[in-house]
Design goal:
The complex is a heterodimer of chains A (374) and B (402). With 374 residues, chain A is an alpha+beta fold. Chain A is 51% helix and 18% strand. Chain A has three domains: 7-121, Orthogonal Bundle (Butyryl-Coa Dehydrogenase, subunit A, domain 1); 124-221, Butyryl-CoA Dehydrogenase, subunit A, domain 2 (Beta Barrel); 227-371, Butyryl-CoA Dehydrogenase, subunit A, domain 3 (Up-down Bundle), CATH 1.20.140. In chain A, helix 1 (7-23) packs parallel to helix 4 and helix 4 packs across helix 7 (225-261). Chain B has helices at residues 2-18, 44-55, 74-86, 96-108, 111-122, 237-265, 270-278, 290-318, 330-349, 363-375, 385-396, and strands at residues 128-131, 147-151, 154-165, 172-178, 189-195, 201-206, 215-226, 230-231. The chains are: A alpha+beta (374), B alpha+beta (402).
Chain lengths: 374, 402
């Protein structure tokens, strides 16, 4: 495992960070929220990201990708995290599309993956159910054989990128285990209801009322869905950790700037030891989160047998660190930090939402322990 | 890569042929050789192994050959360490000579000083100790008061040092002395080397809460040091002192960083092994106590990410990047992590961690009690955690002066 960035990676980081700084100031995030639009992101900007090649990074050349890995994907998602960009790189490219990249047939890839990489369509991953916390078991969604295909019934919630998605990768219980199914938007019996989340991101409830899909809707093998979903979520989780790094770094930087600028008792509040030591501890947590995320990305790229445990380590770490930074950021900003007018509030909301996406810290510590055999 | 593998083959063959069999499988701290005029090691083979390795330059692999080093690069040093670990051999030599004053002399010493002192370090002939802290100069080290007055080609020292690690078994001390009391405190300090084998130097061990005495008090009463043993000029000692503290913090971080990592890479996590035995598992093999299970995981994960950060820093340096500010976190985080690890071990053993000596407790249990108590010093020695956080706040985060 090599942690130092290659020249290409360093250049990607530079261009991605610069692009986000130029095209996605926090005023854009505020405007998106205030507009209350269901999509919650800019399709035009997403198209530009696809033109830059960001949506092609973690896919094989045969699929129209750039054949790079998670090590590069986290560089892009970190840049997105810095600007709190809600474009569906995470939900579609690093979410639903990963199921097709790992197990899709050539026909499935042609129909859905190629246009997703081109930024023309989006693929949402629908696995979470109300009351199921972070379970991947899909206990409330059934798939029964029906004609030459399957009939799906059940409900999914907080389907990220679900409002306006072109197709959904839906997990459902088969007689012999879990299956993942492609369900196109507009399918008969499918109702998509947009949800409003604390962080203003795109999400939806999916109600499946005997939705008929063909044999060719199954991604991977019948009964192999649980393992496939686990692999998809590992990738999505690492990409999310990258995003969280970008967000916590900016929230921390904003807080440091405030400590150096705000005066009380005739001195800069950053001169108080009580705040200095807390800032130093925040810095330590950001650095450890960065190492953990880089290690998890490299482990997946290198097919390291420890990869799954390293992913859980990264997600637990990033969850705790982002929340620490966001909480302290609001506290250290004082009264202004509580106001909607100040941008720091966007970070505490995003920190919580990111924490609760793909398993929180407690979930991943438990998973780490299980994977480690205790 | 071919050269490196050839080097590995040579090292492996040489170690298999020459390393004393009695040392193999002896990775524990107690089998490490510290050298000195009167070595304290239990095993004579340790001394033999040190001398054999010193001939090849392997006690200080990356130092220049002319000073007894191996002239090797970092990649080769890593191969050497891996091959030692493969046979579960201890490092051939350790101590503050190799880890603190040696690197400092390489950076600041004159040619004559390097010639005189470095080879004696690499051969394990002289054991060094550190004379920094004083009863009234702890975190505020620059306020030190031990006086050194010039008399011909000698300095005459009077005063007291404290927390001298292994002072009672060391031969020479690198010591900070006050050579000018009338200037800003940092400007009147000189970095000096002194032979401790003289009547004006008295060393008394200090008994700690752990019952052990790894530290001493050192009293100077008209003790004498040579002017040729001043490093980097009279009243210029503060710069040298800070550079050496950097080496010390690297050393401390390495010790605490590897402690958990070694367990992980070479078999079962020690905390898990302990938990399975003392806490027990349910029918699925999971630890019965869910709270302790979570605590085990937290310490394991923190160790993992700490080691990842140590490796990231090393990779960045190897790749030719400037050492990142992340290295400043190693001392404070590594030591606090070690304390949490020790507390976890106590929690896992439960009441069996209460033994001091005698019946009813296994030797490992008694050792646990002591090592927990010893670990409380980790965040004090070598710069308190509070001082480390001040350093991060000031130098890395560039927050305003207090």
């Amino acid at each position: 495992m090599q942690f130092a960035l290659t020249e290409d990676q360093a250049m990607l980081a530079q261009t991605a960070t610069a692009f986000v700084a130029e095209h996605s100031p926090l005023t854009r995030i505020r405007a998106l929220r205030d507009a209350g639009d269901e999509l919650c992101y800019s399709p035009a900007l997403f198209g530009q990201m696809a033109e830059l090649g960001w949506t092609a990074i973690p896919f094989a050349e045969a699929d129209g990708g750039l054949a790079m890995g998670l090590s590069e994907a986290i560089i892009v998602t970190e840049a997105l995290g810095r600007g709190l960009c809600p474009e569906p790189v995470l939900s579609s490219i690093m979410g639903g599309a990963q199921a097709l990249a790992l197990a899709g047939t050539p026909a499935q890839k042609n129909t859905w993956l190629a246009p997703a990489i081109a930024g023309e369509k989006t693929i949402a991953l629908a696995y979470q159910e109300r009351g199921g916390r972070f379970s991947t078991a899909a206990e409330g969604t059934r798939a029964e054989r029906s004609g030459s295909g399957y009939k799906l019934a059940g409900e999914k919630t907080i389907v990220l990128g679900g409002a306006g998605a072109d197709v959904y990768v839906v997990s459902a219980q088969l007689a012999d285990g879990l299956g993942l199914f492609l369900v196109p938007a507009g399918a008969s019996g499918l109702t998509v209801t947009p949800q409003k989340l604390v962080d203003g991101r795109n999400a939806a409830v999916l109600a499946l009322s005997d939705v008929q899909v063909g044999e060719d809707a199954l991604v991977g093998t019948p009964g192999g869905g649980l393992e496939l979903l686990d692999d998809v979520l590992d990738r999505a989780t690492v990409a999310l950790c990258g995003e969280m790094l970008g967000g916590m770094q900016v929230a921390f930087d904003m807080t440091l700037a405030y400590l150096k600028e705000r005066k009380q008792f005739d001195v800069h509040i950053g001169s108080f030891q009580g705040l200095q030591h807390r800032a130093a501890k925040m810095y330590i947590e950001v650095e450890l989160a960065r190492s953990a995320t880089m290690a998890a990305a490299r482990a997946i790229d290198e097919q390291n047998p420890q990869a799954k445990a390293l992913v859980s380590n990264a997600k637990a770490r990033c969850s705790d660190a982002y929340i620490l930074i966001a909480n302290e950021a609001v506290q250290m900003h004082g009264g202004i930090g509580m106001t909607d007018e100040h941008d720091i509030g966007f970070f505490i909301k995003r920190a919580r939402a990111a924490e609760m996406t793909y398993g929180d810290a407690a979930y991943h510590r438990d998973r780490f322990a299980r994977l480690s055999g205790y | 890569m071919g050269d490196l593998e050839a080097f590995r083959a040579d090292v492996r063959a040489w170690l298999e042929q020459n390393a004393p069999k009695s040392l193999q499988g002896q990775l524990g701290q107690e089998s490490v050789y510290w050298g000195g005029r009167n070595p304290t090691t239990a095993s004579p083979e340790s001394k033999d192994f040190c001398e054999m390795c010193a001939e090849k330059g392997w006690t200080a692999p990356t130092w220049p050959k002319e000073y007894g080093g191996g002239g090797l690069g970092q990649a080769e040093e890593r191969v050497l360490q891996q091959e030692l670990a493969r046979l579960r051999l201890p490092p051939p030599l350790t101590g503050f000579g190799l880890q603190m004053i040696g690197p400092t002399l390489l950076q600041f010493g004159t040619e004559a000083q390097k010639q005189e002192h470095l080879t004696k370090i690499t051969r394990g002939e002289i054991r060094w100790c550190q004379g920094y802290s004083e009863p009234n100069a702890g975190s505020d080290l620059a306020s030190l008061a031990t006086a050194a007055v010039l008399e011909g080609d000698e300095y005459v020292l009077n005063g007291q040092k404290i927390w001298t690690s292994y002072g009672d078994v060391s031969d020479w001390m690198f010591v900070l002395v006050r050579t000018d009391p009338d200037v800003k405190k940092q400007k009147g300090i000189t970095f000096l080397l002194i032979d401790m084998d003289q009547p004006g130097v008295e060393v008394r061990p200090i008994k700690l809460i752990s019952g052990f005495s790894p530290f001493c008090e050192t009293f100077f009463t008209n003790a004498r040091a040579k002017t040729k043993d001043v490093i980097s000029g009279v009243n210029q000692g503060w710069t040298v002192a800070k550079a050496l503290l950097g080496h010390e913090r690297t050393m401390i971080a390495n010790v605490f960083g590897s402690a958990g990592g070694r367990g992980r890479s070479q078999g079962e996590n020690p905390a898990v092994a302990l938990a399975k035995r003392y806490v027990g598992t349910d029918e699925t093999g999971q630890l019965k106590d869910r709270v302790l299970r979570d605590q085990v995981t937290r310490v394991t994960m923190d160790t993992l990410s700490f080691n990842q950060t140590v490796q990231r820093n090393a990779d960045n340096i190897k790749a030719g990047h400037r050492p990142g500010p992340e290295s400043s976190i190693f001392k404070v985080y590594g030591t606090e992590l070690n304390q949490r690890r020790e507390e976890l071990m106590l929690a896992l053993r439960g009441p069996q961690a209460l033994g001091w000596e005698g019946p009813g407790f296994e030797p490992a249990e008694l050792a646990q009690t002591r090592s927990w108590l010893r670990s409380r010093g980790n965040t004090i020695e070598g710069g308190t955690s509070e001082v480390q956080l001040n350093i991060i706040a000031k130098r890395v985060l560039e927050l305003p002066e207090q």
